[in-house]
Amino acid sequence: MRALIETEKLTRVLPEIVPVTLVKDITLAINEREFVAVTGPSGSGKSSLLYLLGLLDRPTAGTLRIGGRDTDPMNERERARTRLSMLGFVFQFHFLLPEFTALENVEIPMRKLGRLARPAMRERAGELLSSLGLGEHLDKRPDQLSGGQRQRVAVARSLANDPPLI
Ligand SMILES: Nc1ncnc2c1ncn2[C@@H]1O[C@H](COP(=O)(O)OP(=O)(O)OP(=O)(O)O)[C@@H](O)[C@H]1O
Ligand SMILES: [Mg+2]
User: Fold this and answer.
1) What are the pLDDT digits (tens) for 34-91?
2) pLDDT at site 165
3) Distance, CA 137 to ligand 1 centroid (Å)?
4) Nearest CA to ligand 1 atom 27
5) 8 Å CB contact between 91 and 155
6) pLDDT of 17-35, one tens digit each?
7) Ligand 1: lining residues by beta carbon, under 6 Å
8) Ligand 1: nearest atom to the Cα of 51
9) How many CA atoms are closer than 13 Å to the CA of 96, on its beta-carbon side?
10) Ligand 2 mean position to 117 CA, how many Å?
């Protein structure tokens, strides 16, 4: 079976006057249905690694394959398309859009991908939020939600375009 996410010696070094190494020589393979936790002390580079795996940052060395495809030659458009259709990201800080409701925040990635009709998007967003215990909060904006509720909206948003169908 081909791994969903596969890296070889993935590295990211910031080109400061004194170069800062955020991620060094990470080789891993994550298969379908596999659940993986990245653990380590604060500041050890977990978020930096996830930014690379989520195509939010570019490695300075090493390779990253997603769905068997090398990501290095991808242009920004292809990277954005892969992020939208194959990856879900829950940030350490939720990054919900403040002027939109919980329901709308979850609908946004579906609208951008354009795979479903509008009523189906709304229904799916409502189902995802309800399954995470937010059925009573669909029409609230992020500033009307608790920290944990906001993070769960972010989880629902990360699952909006799952399963991938490209
Ligand atoms: N833009 C930057 N410039 C310089 N150093 C940075 C930058 N971004 C991150 N770092 C450093 O890189 C290291 C890794 O940061 P990262 O956010 O990946 O850690 P983490 O393992 O996710 O930590 P936490 O558990 O606290 O979330 C940290 O020591 C941090 O100070
Ligand atoms: Mg972190």
Assistant:
1) 999 999 999 999 999 999 999 999 999 999 999 999 999 999 999 999 999 999 999 9
2) 43
3) 33
4) 42
5) no
6) 999 999 999 999 999 889 9
7) 14, 20, 22, 40, 42-48, 92
8) 18
9) 29
10) 36
